[in-house]
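Hi there,

I know you've been waiting on this one. I reran it after we fixed the sequence typo, so this is the corrected version. Both the input and the resulting structure follow.
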Amino acid sequence: MRFDIAKDGSGLVYEIRQIVIVANKLKEYGIEVTWENIGDPINKGEKIPEWMKEVLIEILRNDLSYGYCPTKGVDETREFLADRVNKMGHVQITPEDIIFFNGLGDAIARAYSAIRVDARIIMPEPTYSTHLLAEVLHASFPPNTYRMNPYRDWAPDIRELEQKVRSYKSIVGILVINPDNPTGFVHSPETLQQIVKIAREYDLFLIFDETYINIVYNGKSTVSLSDIIEDVPGISMKGISKEFPWPGSRCGWMEVYNVHKDEKFERYFNTIVNQKMSEVCSTTLPQMAIPKIITHPEYKKYQESRIRHYERLSNIAYNSLKDVPYLIVNRSNGAFYMSVVFNEASLNDRQTLPIKQPEIRQYVEKLVSERIEYDKRFVYYLLGSTGICVVPLTSFFTSVPGFRMTLLDRDADKFEYVMKTLAEKTVEYIESAH
């Protein structure tokens, strides 16, 4: 090429998917992989109920489900969603304040790409990879972050957040993921109100990723951004991938609050809408399904059953790992992820796990011969030795070593066996070089 055409940041890796390449290679050698990397309830065996399938069949009989919809989304669905927000009474929106995308990944990419290159969003650390990649690609520079503290149940460091907002004038917005991915932390209403207060004081806008807002358990509770935002400009990102669950629908949306109260924020939102027009619209059929599924008489009972299952698995995982001496383990209380941290200085580049099959051992040893993070090294040995596939925590833009796993297995007994194996192998790995 005449000159280098790739933007800085194009070398970033989406480790949640990248680890699949390694795992599939090991499958060729006969390894049975236990997938704990990707938050896809369907691939983990969740069965979609017949009543939900019947709703979709009914929509398929409607010719309108095969056509374009308005750029911002199906009118009836946006009216339905706006009405749900307005009934709470804390902030008022219209259907025009809602815009649909082809999954939240698309919404996230649009939200960050519409921001000026020299303006930054401060995000939690660790943070979900899609937000991280979008922020880095938009600015070609590492992100500003505020720490989620594993020594305080993953609670955010509000003091650090305010200090950075005050010090870095380039910060224009704050990202909150609630419940959090990758940690499973559920933000308290009081903490969220503190974040809103910071945004108001420093004239920022808020992005709340609320993908899992209705998946909270273990007696915890939280609030939506619409409940507390008052007069601050903000965006709530929501979707049906994990809640219905229908990840293959690629259907997510933004709810934009107080868009007309700030001229700069309104111009930013209009930029997103104008970009969306170039795509014409997002997929029609999933949008048409949202009001029908949410209002179905079986929906609430179905969701409650799913949440009870995630709660059970969160406690199995916590009880299996909490007494491992080399780990910092916090109970997950929302979404269906759990992040575990290694104690400081417990990892090094001499630790191994036994791998019986020579081809697999050689493959793993080749992978770890490169200069890689210590937790990634552990993940490769764990995968080669047991077939358990987790994600290194450092891939979520943090220097804290650990791993993220899912809470999605439909077989609780099998999941408990996997957790006990994980606990045993963690000890074996760390003590192999001590």
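Quick highlight: The chain has a mean pLDDT of 93.

Best,
R. S.
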